[in-house]
Amino acid sequence: MKLRLAAAQRLKTVLAGEHFTPLGANDLADGRDRALANRLITTALRRQGQINVMLADLLEKGLPARSGSFEAVLRLSLAQLVFLPDLGAHSALFLAVEAVKRDAKARHLSGLMNAVLRRAQANSARYGLMDDALLLPEHFTTGWTAAYGSNAVAQFATTLTEGAPLDLTLRDNDPVLIEALGAEPLIADSVRLEHRDRPVEALPGYDEGRWWVQDAASAIPARLMGLEAGRSVLDLCAAPGGKTAQLIKAGYKVTALDSDGTRLQRLKQNMGRLGYAPIVVEADAANYDPASPFDGILLDAPCSATGTFRRHPEVLWNRTARDISGRVTLQQALLTNAFRCLAPGGTLLYCVCSLEAAEGEQQVSWALDALPGLELWPIAAGEMKGLEQALTPEGFVRTHPAMSPGSGNAGMDGFFVARFKRTR
Ligand SMILES: C[S@@+](CC[C@H](N)C(=O)[O-])C[C@H]1O[C@@H](n2cnc3c(N)ncnc32)[C@H](O)[C@@H]1O
User: Fold this and answer.
1) Where is the active site (predicted)?
2) Residue 408 predicted with pLDDT over 80
């Protein structure tokens, strides 16, 4: 019951618009309970599009208003009944009814919960055969089909239900460590663990700081800086520091800037574990004014994060068109200040973990118009070994979850990268 209540509480916050973070040891001390609760939540989130259809079918009058945890508990039980049959139908029904009885705002709905779940149980075979196309909201399917093609979008739905593997970036190339991790090399210094039987902190090499967690797509931009070692590089929007670590590994003199003090603490802890020591600055990237300009700047701009839907399925349902246009305006302010902080001759890398052209390709056109002295420096095929298909004719990098690096086939995050030079 404790597990169910904790899972419902977390799902409720995500349905209200918060970012999904898995339950941790502070939420549920027992590791097995925690794993099960997180499995229930992620299944409910990944299957949200199909569960929405079930809810419309099962609740003739729609969801009752002001009903506390009712919706979250119901979604978890539907996920269990239809998509996790190994967990048993009886517990899905029994625990849901008991959970709402413990919530003063939902108690009066325990009869409805029971009736709805019994009908769902009777229909579970039919619900289990629902079309995967329902997993993605229609407006995203339309835009992404135009941009990436219908085969890719059909694969997006599959990668959503399967979730993301764990990718690591290695501090040093060490075949013995790769073997000990049970990992497959992908491209450059990225490796992939398709299956994992323990927490990240318990994997070989964690304590010694021999790798950091970073999706293979997220590891692409920092490799494209193209400057000599020893040059000064500003990592804008740096926390928790995946790209900072790569820039230090490449030999640059790195300043890591972020506006969020809590996230910067995490960056410092991460760098401490890796034995790296960037200069750390807490500031707003839109008006940071450095004492001297930098030779290189990496701007990993805040974005809709639609490219991360395999790990954050909630972005599919929580993002509105207005959110995206708000991010577009912020990205333009950050690009403008990045240009101001860059020395003539310097390199600017712009990247976002978004699948939306408005935050990627269209921002490049905007920047080339709005910032005289900024020129495109196309990325070359030779810089994208093992992932040539991600290179666009303009010399951008565009990845998406239906693309796989190297010989892998389990997808990658959606990312967009463009590279510029400041000529004057
Ligand atoms: C996508 S995350 C960055 C991930 C990071 N680059 C990495 O590779 O680990 C975006 C970051 O932007 C930061 N951010 C958002 N708005 C900002 C601003 N105006 N100035 C500086 N940082 C900002 C957030 O705090 C967040 O840490």
Assistant:
1) 353 (nucleophile)
2) no
How far, in Å, from the CA of 58 to the mean position of ligand 1? 41
250 Cα–ligand 1 center, Å? 21
Is the CB–ligand 1 distance for residue 221 below 6 Å? no
Contact 239, 302 (CB under 8 A): no
Arithmetic mean of pLDDT, 197-217: 95
Asked if residue 237 has its Cβ within 6 Å of ligand 1, the reply is yes
The verdict on the CB of residue 401 being under 6 Å from ligand 1 is: no
Q: Which tokens belong to 165?
A: 């593997």
Are residues 325 and 416 located together in one domain of the fold?
Answer: yes
- Average pLDDT of span 240-267: 98
Query: Distance, CA 167 to ligand 1 centroid (Å)?
Result: 20
Q: Is 260 in the pocket of ligand 1 (CB under 6 A)?
A: yes
| Nearest atom in ligand 1 to 267's CA | 9
CATH code of the domain in which 355 resides: 3.40.50.150
* Same structural domain, 326 and 339: yes
**Kindly report the CA angle at 235 between 232 and 239, in degrees rounded to 5?**
145
* Angle, helix 31-46 to helix 70-83, in steps of 10 degrees: 90
The answer to whether the beta carbons of residues 319 and 271 sit under 8 Å apart is no
Residues 207, 320 within the same domain:
yes
353 catalytic, yes or no? yes
Q: What is the domain count for the chain?
A: 2
Domain that holds residue 21: 2-130
Q: 138-147, 228-237, 327-336, 408-417 — which is least confidently predicted?
A: 408-417
- Where b means 16+ CB within 10 Å and e means fewer, 11-42 reads bbebbeeeebeebeeebbeeeebbebbbbbbb
If asked whether residues 177 and 252 sit together in one domain, one would say yes
Pocket test for ligand 1, best of 212, 224, 237, 263 (most atoms within 8 A of CB): 237
Please state the pTM of the whole predicted model: 0.94
- Complex ipTM: 0.99
Same domain as 347, residue 198 = yes
State the sign of the Cα–Cα–Cα–Cα dihedral 309, 210, 189, 251.
positive
Residues 196 and 283 in one domain: yes
295 with 340, same domain: the answer is: yes
Q: Are residues 61 and 169 in the same domain?
A: no
